[in-house]
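Task: sequence design from structure.
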């Protein structure tokens, strides 16, 4: 299947940023088997800031393999020409189920992102375990001081102690290296959560996180302890046998 998109990006402050057009065209291919699924996007992207345009490959591969009735493996890899606002909108979650924190955007200029990730998911009636790892390298043409590489992994373990009570352990570590700027960071997170479901729709969740950063070069590290209580309510959907045509 042939697919494509185009966008026109306008900045309020054109003194620091340049308006540009971004267009992509690619071939989308899917293959589904009994235990293996493959999705591939192959094409190119062009950025036109009004002066000299720039183009680059658009490659995206995703392979999912069912290892057993309770385990699944997912592999992803790709390369694309992108920029800060688009990269934030396409961030993916890891094993923890939360969107990963990306390096701070220092410029609106485009860059080439090359990435690869692997995820393993295990789920049974009462236990769920997820592991993931990701590596990414961002290269800026003509601005090598902004080049960076990022790699790390996540873990999440969830256990249903009873039908109403569950416990969760989670952790992550990411290493970011600005090779030409004498700046590296190692970010870690360790957390735990307890969830109590009261009734059919009420939920209480108590969570604790310990976050730390070790920085070298021009950076500074920190440590932070966070605890919070979340109370949620999910109304139950009502089904009427008469409206659904059931019970007749």
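Answer:
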């Amino acid at each position: 299947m042939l697919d494509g998109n185009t966008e026109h990006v306008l900045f309020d402050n054109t003194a620091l940023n340049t308006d540009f057009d971004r267009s992509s065209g690619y071939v989308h291919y899917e293959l589904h088997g009994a235990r293996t699924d493959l999705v591939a996007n192959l094409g190119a992207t062009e950025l036109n800031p009004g002066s000299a345009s720039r183009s680059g490959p658009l490659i995206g591969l995703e392979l999912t393999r069912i290892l057993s009735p309770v385990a699944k493996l997912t592999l992803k890899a790709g390369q694309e020409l992108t920029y800060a606002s688009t990269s934030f909108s396409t961030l993916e979650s890891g094993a923890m189920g939360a969107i990963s924190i990306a390096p701070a955007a220092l410029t609106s200029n485009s860059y080439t992102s090359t990435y690869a990730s692997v995820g393993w998911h295990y789920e049974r009636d009462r236990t769920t375990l997820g592991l993931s790892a990701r590596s990414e390298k961002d290269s800026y043409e003509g601005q090598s001081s902004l080049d960076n590489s990022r790699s790390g992994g996540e873990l999440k373990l969830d256990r249903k102690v009873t039908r109403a009570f569950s416990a969760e352990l989670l952790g992550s570590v990411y290493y970011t290296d600005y090779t030409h700027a004498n700046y590296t960071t190692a970010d870690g997170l360790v957390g735990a959560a307890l969830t109590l479901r009261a009734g059919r729709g009420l939920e209480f969740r108590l969570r604790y996180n310990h976050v730390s950063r070790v920085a070298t070069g021009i950076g500074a590290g920190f440590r932070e302890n966070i605890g919070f209580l979340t109370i949620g309510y999910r109304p139950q959907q009502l089904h009427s046998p008469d409206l659904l045509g059931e019970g007749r």
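The chain has two helices and twelve strands.
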